[in-house]
Amino acid sequence: MAFTAASLSPYTTTFPPKRHHFPFPSIRFTSRRLLISASLLSSETHLQSDHQLEPDEPHQAPDYNSLDTWTERDMRSLPSPELEVIQLEELPEQWRRSRIAWLCKELPAYKQSTAVRILNGQRKWISQDDATYVAVHCMRIREYESAFRVYSWMSQQHWYRFNFALATKLADHLGRDRKIAKCRQVFDDITKQGRVASESTFHILIIAYLSAHVDGGIDEACTIYNQMVQQGGYRPRLTLHNSLFKALVSKTGGTSKHYLKQAEFIYHNLVTMDLEVSKDIYAGLIWLHSYQDKIDRDRIVFLRDEMKRAGFKETSDVLVSVMRAFSKEGDLEETEKAWLRLLKMGSEIPSQAFVCRMELYSRIGEPMKSLKIFKQMKEVLRQPNISAYHKIINIMSKAQEVELAQALMDEFMETSMKHLMPAFLDMMYMYLNLEMHEKLASIFTKCLSRCRPNRVLYSIYLESLVRTNNIQKAEELFTEMQKNATIGTTAKSCNMMLRGFLSAGEYIKAEKLHNMMRHKKYEIQPDLLEKIQNGLFLNNNFVDHKNVVDQTVNIKLDQEQREILIGLFLGGLEVAQNERNRNHAIRFRFQQDSDIHSVLRIHIFERFYEWLAASDRSIKDETEIPYQFSTVSHLHFNFFATQFQMNSQPAVPKLIHRWLSPCVLAYWYMYAGFRHSSGDILLRLKGGKIEDVERIVKALKEKSILCKVKRKGRVSWIGMQGSSADTFLKLVEPYLLDFCEKDDDSQIKEVSFGYPDADSEVDLLG
Length: 766
Description:
mainly alpha; single chain; 766 residues; 4-stranded antiparallel beta sheet; 54% helix; 37 helices
C-alpha cells in the first residue's frame, strides 16, 4: 500500500513497507527508556470519530464493515498505557546488542516453527526486556504475526512477568490487521491476569468481529461490548453503539429477534450516557419487538412516543412493524390505524403490510376478508411475493376451505417462485385433519417432485398411512426414512410406527422397534407402553415385560458413528473433559449461515440422540435444535480425545491414513469443505504435523485423487482439481446429505459446503 504525504497525519510515524527481509536494524533513541504511545504504534488503519459530527458534515450511518471508518484523532483520545522499551545502544554488552539486532532482522523472515527454534536457541542469555524490544520492533515494521510469536514464546518462559502495556499494543495491532483469533488470545491473556483491557483494545476487537463476518462474530462482539461497559466501566463511542446495533438488525427477523435484549441494552447505554439516539435505533427496536412471539405493547407504545418527542416521523418501515406486532394480537383498531397512515403517505405500499392485514383478519376469525385483501394485493402489486402466498394458503388451510386452498396452491405452483415446502405442509395438515388421505398422498407425490425430502413431510404421510391401517406401505416409508440420512426418524415417527405395528398385531416387529427406541432413549407414549406390556404378556416369544421395559441399555458407538466422528474431528470438532470422572464429551458446533450445516446439525442431533444430555433430548421440534450442543461425558469418547487432541490443541492421528473411508471423507467434506464454482474442492484440516498431512495426501493418491496442500498457521487446506475433484465426489456421493432444494425444472442448484475462514488463504490452487 502506497502512502502519499497528503494522506498521512502530521502526528503519524511512518514505517517502511512490509517485507520478509530487513537490513541490519539501526535504532537510536534519545533516552534510557523509550515511551511508546498508541498513536506512535498505529499508522495503517484508522478509527473513526463518533462523538460529534462537524457542523457542516452530513449525518451518515456508520459503516461497520470496514476498520477504515475510524480516524487517528479519536484513537489518540482513547486512553492507552505507555510501553517502556530498552534503548539498544546503551546496553553494556556488544554481543547482546548484536544478538538482539540479529533477531530483529531474522525472525520476521521465518514461519512459526523456525522462529520458535531460533528463540529456543537464545534461552541462555535473552531476558524479558530483550524479547520485548524484539516484539516492539516487529510491531514497528508491521510484522504483527512475528510480534505475536515472540510474545507467545516469552509468555511461556520462567522469567516472564505479564506486561500489560505490551499486551495492549499487540492486541490493538492484531485487531486492526484482522488477526481476530490472535487478538482475542491476547485479550484473554489480559483478562486471565485479572486486568481490564484498555478501551482501545475493547473498541478494536468489537469492530474486528463485526467486520470479519465470521460465524458467531456478532455474539462475540456483543460479549466484548458487555464486558466493556459492565466490567471496564467504559463509555463507548457513539459510532460503536450504532455499529453493533446495525449488525444486530442486519439479519432477517426470525434470527434477529433473539438479539432484542442486547439491542435494548445498547439503547439503555445511549440514553444513560447522554448520547444521541438516532431514528434508526428507534425503528430497529420496534422492528425487533414486532417479531417476538409475545408482543410487549407498552414497550412499543413507549418507543413510538420517544421517537415523536425526539422529532422523528414514523416511516413506512416503522408502521409496518407496528402492523406486524398488533396483527399478532388481533388488535383490529391499531392495525387499521397504522394501515390508514401508511396509505396517507402516498408512497408504494410494502407487501408486508398486506400480509399483516391478512394475519389480522385470520386472527379475528374472518378468513374470507384475508382472501379479499390478497386479491387487492394482486391488483396493486401485480405479483404477490412468496410470504403472501404462504400466508394466504396457511389461512385457507386452517379454515379448511379446501377448494380455495387447492386453487391458491395450484396458482402458487404455476409461478416461478421457489420455497414451496411451507405451503405443501399446510395443505397436507389440512387433508390429514379432514381425513382426505387420497388427496394427501397425491400432494405428497407432487411435493417430492418439486422440493427436497423433508422429515415433517414424511411424518405427516406416515401418520396418514397408520390411520388408514396401511401398515405395509407405512413400514416401507418408515424404512426409507431410516435409510435416508437427510430425513431420519424421530421419537414422534417411531411412536407413530409402533402404534401401527401394535394395532395390526405385529408384535415381533413392535418388539424390534421398541428395543431400538430404548437404545436411542426415545420416550415411549404411555398408552403404547401399556399395550406393549399387554402384548409381551400374551406372546410367549417375549420375555417378562418388566425386564424389557426397565433394564438399562448399555449403548456403544456403532461403526457409522465412529466414522462420522472421525470426519468431523478432521474438520475441527472439539472435545471437553469432565473434571469429575475424567471422561470426555463431544462438542458439536455448526455454522448458522451455512445451508449444509443447518441440515447436518439436524442429522447429527438425531444420529447421536442417545448420547445427548437429557435436557437436549427434551427438544421436540427440530427448529429448536441449537447450532451448538454436547454429548454426555463417556469413556467411549476418550479414544477420540487422545487421538485428535494433544496439549489441548487439534491433532491428527498417526493411523489416519487407514481410517479415510468414503464415509469419513464425506462428513469431513460436509463439515469443513468448500466447493469452488470452477469445481475445485478444498478440505480444511485443523492441527497435525506436516508428516500427518503427507500421510493423508498419500492415502488419497492411492484412491486416484491427487492433491495440493497449502498451510496457514495450524490450518492446512487440501485442494483437488479437475478429474481428482470428480473422483472425490463420486467416492463420497453415497454418503452426502441431500439438502439442495430443486427448482421448477427439477435441476439441483449448485451449492458450497462450508467456506474457508477469514484468516486462511483461499486461492490455494492458483
